[in-house]
Design brief:
single chain; mainly beta; Immunoglobulin-like; 3 domains; 6-stranded mixed β-sheet; disordered N terminus
Length: about 475
């Protein structure tokens, strides 16, 4: 904690702020400062050539129908500066004049033409020539709008760049604000009526040392780390950095992460580690993470890049007998299709990508009852996949016609009592439809019924007539 007279300065904020509180007393007599708080990551130091900004916050208990605030920047020892055009507001409105004022998107003035519906946000410049002193004012007046009550709300910021040239000795830049600028009195209007604040400049309120950018020589012990990892595993990698022990305000920051989730950077005094949990979607990609040694304010001195190649292993497949044969109508099952999970975080399943038949997603059991249309040679291609990666293998299946086809209702090995049983199951027990219905029409009456089963029994056991090729439509 750095102290400047009555001002306390924490040393770890990202920007420095001049926070002004406007007190509106219930009787409406006057306005004045309640407190001015300065926070800045480099304590009391501005760096030559480094953009700087001051944020202005207001507190009011009543709706303001107008405001008019003056600001002054000066140097007692000849420091100079440039106003930083940030495509904001300047004299003449949005993106005009020096355009060095930015409204806070989350502030109450973010829509200035609605809040200050009489004038909009007005910026006036006095002696704005980058030579001490520069004075400007920010104001607005409302007809039906106005600034609603609120406490310590950041409304806008103004931006400049200290420009001391080749600084041989430290110089100083001071900032002040007031409700009555040198050009005259500003009037505040509230619901209680107009008031004229009686506040004058308080020179020396907040001053900063302008210093050359101090290169403390910080560096990582390496600038590129290549890592290869499986997508199921968390990656952790340590890093080490060194710098001049007399140099402070050095921090380790994450500069780029490609929008990754599951990423953290933990930094200690000159050391730390990254931790990253890849996902299956990262397989085949090289994930890049960049961290930096940052000198106040936000000047990157050294970087360290981690390039993480994310890999995965497809399921290992193993298919048993590669060549198989079955007759049409016969049930064919293959239970020697196996796969092994590649990683502890993956679950695979099976698909048929080519050929007839079906396969159980989890067990890999292949099933087919071939028909006449399936006669021929087939390569059955099976894929095992875990949604991210896959591996394929295949087996050969020859599907042939059987002999003694008429009467072979079950499409088994020849005509036997099993064919009669198959017909009975189909007719009375809602069994499988005979694969080739005309073979089941053993008596040739163009339909399948119990008569065909009796016909086959007579043929098999009593020397009856041979089965006929049926005529079922």
């Amino acid at each position: 904690m750095k102290s400047f007279g009555d001002f306390s300065v924490p040393a770890y904020s990202k920007i420095f702020r001049l926070i002004m509180f406007v007190l509106i007393w219930c009787v409406g007599y006057t306005y004045g400062y309640n407190a001015i708080t300065l926070t800045y990551p480099c304590s009391d130091t501005l760096y030559n050539g480094v953009p700087s900004s001051i944020s202005v916050s207001y507190s009011n208990d009543d709706t303001l129908s107008g405001f008019y605030t003056g600001f002054k920047i000066w140097s007692p020892d000849g420091a100079i500066w440039n106003w930083n055009d940030v495509n904001g507001y300047g004299q003449g409105g949005l993106d005009s004049g020096k355009a060095f004022i930015l409204l806070n998107d989350e502030g109450r003035m973010s829509s200035p033409n609605e809040v200050w519906d009489l004038t909009g946000l007005v910026v006036n410049e006095y002696e704005m020539d980058n030579i001490s002193p520069d004075v400007f004012s920010v104001s607005g007046e409302a007809n039906s709008g106005g600034l609603p009550p609120g406490q310590n709300i950041n409304e806008f910021s103004f931006h400049f760049i200290p420009n001391g040239g080749l600084i041989e000795a430290p110089k100083t830049i001071c900032i002040d604000s007031v409700f009555v600028p040198p050009s005259g009195s500003f009037i505040f209007n509230t619901a209680s009526g107009p008031t004229v604040p009686l506040v004058s400049w308080v020179d020396g309120g907040m001053c900063f040392v302008v210093s050359p950018l101090r290169n403390c020589g910080p560096s990582f012990d390496q600038n590129l780390v290549n890592i290869s990892t499986n997508h199921c595993y968390n990656v952790q990698h340590d890093f080490q950095a060194t710098w001049d022990e007399n140099c402070n305000n050095i921090e380790v920051e994450l500069l780029s992460n490609n929008g990754l989730g599951g990423l953290s950077v933990i930094a200690y005094e000159g050391s730390g580690h990254i931790s990253y949990s890849p996902s299956g979607e990262d397989i085949g990609d090289t994930v890049q993470i960049v961290i930096g040694l940052v000198q106040c304010p936000e000047i990157v001195i050294s970087t360290l890049t981690f390039e993480i190649e994310v890999t995965g292993i497809p399921p290992l497949m193993l298919i048993g007998n590669s060549y198989n044969q079955v007759g049409i109508g016969n049930l064919f099952q293959k239970d020697d299709i196996l796969a092994q999970e590649d990683d502890i975080c993956d679950t695979y399943y099976f698909l048929i990508t080519s050929g007839p038949g079906s396969i159980d997603l989890q067990s890999g059991l292949y099933t087919l009852i071939p028909t006449l249309e399936d006669i021929g040679e087939h390569w059955i291609v099976i894929e095992a996949t875990d949604s991210y990666e896959s591996r394929v293998d295949s087996f050969h299946l020859t599907i042939i016609e059987e002999s003694n086809m008429p009467g072979n209702a079950s499409c088994g090995d020849g005509v036997n009592v099993g064919d009669a049983v198959s017909i009975v199951n189909y007719v009375f027990r809602n069994g499988y439809t005979p694969p080739i219905v005309n073979w089941a029409d053993a008596n040739g009456d163009c339909q399948i019924n119990i008569g065909d089963a009796v016909y086959l029994i007579n043929y098999i056991f009593r020397g009856g007539a041979a089965p006929l090729t049926g005529c079922v439509n």
